[in-house]
Design brief:
The complex is a heterodimer of chains A (285) and B (310).
Chain A (H helix, E strand, L loop, with lengths): L16 H19 L4 H17 L15 E4 L5 H10 L40 H15 L5 E6 L6 H12 L5 E7 L8 H4 L5 H7 L3 E6 L3 H10 L8 E6 L22 H15 L2
Parallel strand pairs in A: 1-2, 2-3, 3-5, 4-5
Helix pairs in contact in A: 1-2, 1-3, 1-9, 2-3, 2-8, 4-5
Chain B lengths: L2 E3 H12 L6 E5 L3 H4 L2 H6 L4 E3 L4 H12 L4 E7 H5 L2 H10 L4 E6 L17 H6 L5 E3 L4 H13 L4 E4 L4 E3 L14 E4 L4 E5 L3 H16 L3 E5 L2 E3 L3 H10 L2 E9 L4 H12 L3 E7 L9 H7 L4 H12 L2
Helix pairs in contact in B: 1-8, 4-6, 9-13, 10-11
The structure holds thiamine diphosphate.
Chain lengths: 285, 310
Amino acid sequence: MDSEQHDSGQGGDPTSLPSLCTQLRIDILEMIHAAGSGHPGGSLSAIDVIATLYECQLTHNPHEPDWPDRDRFILSKGHGAPALYAVLAHRGYFPRARLSSLRTFGSELQGHPVVGTVAGVEACTGSLGQGLSIAQGVALAARLDGRDVRAYCMLGDGELQEGQVWEAALSAAAYGLDGLVAILDLNGGQLDGHTADILPLGDVAAKWTSFGWGVRSIDGHDHAQILDALRWAKGRDGMPKVIIANTVKGKGVPFMEDQVAWHGAAPTDEQLEQALAALRGEGAP
Amino acid sequence: MTNAPTRQSFSAALAERGPQYPEVVVLDADLSKSTKSELFRKVCPDRFFQMGICEQNMIGAAAGLAMSGKTAFCFSFACFVAGRFETIKISVAYGGANVKIIGTHAGVGVGADGYSQMSLEDIALMRSLPAMRVYQPADDIEAAALCEHLCRTPGPAYVRLTRQNVPTIHADGYVFRDGELDELRSGTDLALFGTGATSAECLKAADRLGDSQGLSVAVVNVPSIKPIDVDGIASWAKRVPLIVTVEDHNVLAGMGSAVAEVLAEVGGARLLRHGVHDAFGESGSAAELYRKHRLDADGIAEVAVAARTR
Ligand SMILES: Cc1ncc(C[n+]2csc(CCOP(=O)(O)OP(=O)(O)O)c2C)c(N)n1
């Protein structure tokens, strides 16, 4: 992309998303393997949505990361940082070669996202529950300044247990913030187990609806559905929107899928090989 | 000699005591595999409450349990529990609830996860609350002794535990004395005061200072940060010309500040507060971060030598 140009979000080619996401999944696993720690499950569940957003919907400019009219993406579930870093590197925010330094001493690629480290990180996250409030503030500022800026925020389903999320949900609806888009990575897992066994969320769509949000539920690994929902969420109708992305934790790596043990563990050499083979077999263009 | 994280040692001790103390209940906020409170769940499942990722609600519910006669131990990472400061202030401290807040993964010793998972300010926060007692055990033996003490002693308390391994520095039969300094080694040229993971590093630093500089270095472990041992500090202030406090916490308002507050009133020895100097943490291994902040034995020795010649 020309360094002078802003990406309007329309430029990306949706047909390239499946192969791109396979590559990004490989990046995620290689990063976590090299680091020896990290969170593969929630990175793999989130990658299709984050990649589709940055490829085909977000208005931004990797060469001018502070451009005031850019849309913002806040990864509230900050432990999914490898997914964010893989996409930011792919979009040219920083060299891909740096990915292998994840979590190491002196690296810009901190274990959880930190403002002022790599370009493109919009908020300090990693303490769950804080991102949607920050995104609300971004949307309020955009409205105040008359900028056509969207604030996107990805939440985990375990993260929804934090009360602050629901304070933001109430508040954003009260302010009619149609520039705010929450994306829920509904993968059914959290740290100690399955969300249903720890603190069941009940009817999530009904909850958001009753809080005054526009709600759409999709398959969070189907790029066409993701794109369609992202386009829907741009509607200026006086309501904040939430896209409920039904996902699989560990998606793409059969032995990680829906396995609680892969919330926060790095693959061994052998497991990495096995995972990459599965991904390459499936995702070859 | 064992080498274990104090989160493991403390949680194992609590699980062991579960059957003996039927009023003990344990709450965790979706981190029981990391805090190791799952060990208690395995022994006493009916007295374990998985609260989900809701630290604030967990602390409030613990206060309610405590007000109904239970001894409620609340586990999470130190940053996430201490982060619910005002709930602790009102529901626990002000109400005098018998809640033991157990913050694991303290300090830069957390390592690769980075600063958002570290707590470098929890001692400062908890010390500031009336009625709140603040403890940090240095090894497995002290963690177990502290656990026993807390099971028997009512009232609000905060306990700070490590993610990383720490070596055993106490002998079997060690008795925990609330509000007292724990002298590990005597000496006359200076005294190193450690707490938690830094106590073992202070011992190693004292060896190095003895070998390389011929210094006689005392080492004092500070498991009880509040109440702090006023008489003990006053007596050390007469025994040595220099005290160096060493902690994996911000130097502002931590253990070193607690010592400084006493020394400012009793006079005597000069003090150097050493720790994380008003900085955020970052990713890296615990060893790399201890090196960077000079919290490892070599770093402590360097800091102590520099302090003597100042
Ligand atoms: C406030 C807070 N409490 C606890 C944690 C520890 N933690 C990290 S990830 C996680 C589970 C998150 O589950 P979810 O939001 O569903 O994420 P996903 O399953 O998508 O990885 C927990 C409890 C945290 N990061 N922040």
